[in-house]
Design goal:
2 domains, 3 strands, binds zinc ion, about 110 residues, alpha+beta, three-stranded antiparallel beta sheet, about 15% strand
Length: about 110
Protein backbone atom coordinates (compact mmCIF):
# COMPACT_ATOMS: atom_id res chain seq x y z
CA UNK A 1 0.00 0.00 0.00
CA UNK A 2 1.29 3.37 -0.99
CA UNK A 3 -0.05 6.34 0.88
CA UNK A 4 0.82 9.80 -0.26
CA UNK A 5 0.11 12.84 1.87
CA UNK A 6 -0.07 16.14 0.02
CA UNK A 7 -0.20 19.33 2.06
CA UNK A 8 -1.72 22.27 0.23
CA UNK A 9 -1.09 25.83 1.28
CA UNK A 10 -2.81 29.10 0.41
CA UNK A 11 -1.21 30.48 -2.75
CA UNK A 12 -1.64 34.04 -1.45
CA UNK A 13 -0.45 33.93 2.18
CA UNK A 14 1.00 30.37 2.35
CA UNK A 15 -1.13 29.55 5.39
CA UNK A 16 -2.16 25.92 5.94
CA UNK A 17 -5.56 27.02 7.34
CA UNK A 18 -7.45 26.24 4.13
CA UNK A 19 -10.76 24.41 3.72
CA UNK A 20 -12.56 22.91 0.75
CA UNK A 21 -14.99 25.33 -0.87
CA UNK A 22 -16.93 23.49 -3.57
CA UNK A 23 -15.97 22.98 -7.18
CA UNK A 24 -15.70 25.42 -10.04
CA UNK A 25 -17.67 24.91 -13.31
CA UNK A 26 -14.76 22.85 -14.68
CA UNK A 27 -15.08 20.46 -11.73
CA UNK A 28 -11.84 21.43 -10.00
CA UNK A 29 -11.73 21.49 -6.22
CA UNK A 30 -11.73 25.01 -4.82
CA UNK A 31 -10.43 26.16 -1.45
CA UNK A 32 -10.92 29.08 0.85
CA UNK A 33 -8.25 30.38 3.19
CA UNK A 34 -9.35 30.98 6.77
CA UNK A 35 -6.34 33.19 7.43
CA UNK A 36 -6.63 35.72 4.58
CA UNK A 37 -10.15 34.95 3.31
CA UNK A 38 -9.07 34.50 -0.26
CA UNK A 39 -9.83 31.44 -2.33
CA UNK A 40 -8.86 29.66 -5.48
CA UNK A 41 -8.43 26.36 -7.22
CA UNK A 42 -6.63 23.80 -5.07
CA UNK A 43 -4.44 22.34 -7.83
CA UNK A 44 -4.58 24.75 -10.77
CA UNK A 45 -3.79 23.52 -14.27
CA UNK A 46 -0.82 25.31 -15.80
CA UNK A 47 -1.70 25.62 -19.48
CA UNK A 48 1.29 27.70 -20.56
CA UNK A 49 4.66 27.56 -18.84
CA UNK A 50 6.54 30.79 -18.14
CA UNK A 51 8.93 29.83 -20.93
CA UNK A 52 6.06 29.47 -23.44
CA UNK A 53 4.61 32.79 -22.30
CA UNK A 54 7.95 34.53 -22.78
CA UNK A 55 8.30 33.03 -26.26
CA UNK A 56 4.80 34.13 -27.29
CA UNK A 57 5.32 37.64 -25.90
CA UNK A 58 8.71 37.81 -27.66
CA UNK A 59 6.89 36.97 -30.89
CA UNK A 60 4.40 39.74 -30.14
CA UNK A 61 7.30 42.22 -29.97
CA UNK A 62 7.96 41.45 -33.65
CA UNK A 63 4.59 43.10 -34.32
CA UNK A 64 2.35 40.33 -35.67
CA UNK A 65 -1.37 40.72 -35.00
CA UNK A 66 -2.98 39.00 -32.03
CA UNK A 67 -4.98 36.90 -34.49
CA UNK A 68 -1.67 35.94 -36.15
CA UNK A 69 -0.29 34.76 -32.79
CA UNK A 70 -3.54 32.85 -32.27
CA UNK A 71 -3.01 31.02 -35.57
CA UNK A 72 0.70 30.30 -34.96
CA UNK A 73 0.60 29.15 -31.33
CA UNK A 74 -3.03 28.15 -30.87
CA UNK A 75 -3.34 30.41 -27.82
CA UNK A 76 -6.52 32.48 -27.58
CA UNK A 77 -5.90 36.16 -28.31
CA UNK A 78 -7.85 37.09 -25.19
CA UNK A 79 -5.23 35.12 -23.21
CA UNK A 80 -2.38 37.01 -24.87
CA UNK A 81 -4.20 40.28 -24.19
CA UNK A 82 -4.47 39.34 -20.50
CA UNK A 83 -0.72 38.66 -20.35
CA UNK A 84 -0.05 41.99 -22.05
CA UNK A 85 -2.08 43.84 -19.43
CA UNK A 86 0.38 42.58 -16.83
CA UNK A 87 3.27 43.96 -18.94
CA UNK A 88 2.17 47.45 -20.00
CA UNK A 89 5.61 48.16 -21.46
CA UNK A 90 4.75 45.74 -24.28
CA UNK A 91 1.33 47.19 -24.97
CA UNK A 92 1.24 48.91 -28.35
CA UNK A 93 -1.81 50.98 -27.49
CA UNK A 94 0.35 53.26 -25.34
CA UNK A 95 1.94 54.41 -28.60
CA UNK A 96 -1.37 54.69 -30.42
CA UNK A 97 -2.06 58.13 -31.93
CA UNK A 98 -5.01 58.79 -29.65
CA UNK A 99 -2.80 58.28 -26.58
CA UNK A 100 -0.20 60.84 -27.61
CA UNK A 101 -0.61 64.52 -26.70
CA UNK A 102 -2.58 66.43 -29.30
CA UNK A 103 -0.55 68.65 -31.63
CA UNK A 104 -1.05 72.34 -31.02
CA UNK A 105 -2.86 74.05 -33.86
CA UNK A 106 -2.11 77.57 -34.98
CA UNK A 107 -5.18 79.82 -34.89
CA UNK A 108 -4.17 82.38 -37.51
ZN1 LIG B 1 -4.42 32.81 2.62
Amino acid sequence: MIRQVITYRCTHCHSDQIVKNGHNPQGKQQYRCKACGRGGVLNPTVRYSEQQKEQILATYRERPSLRGIERIYGVARQTVARWLKKKPSLCRRLKAPYCLPKPTTCSN
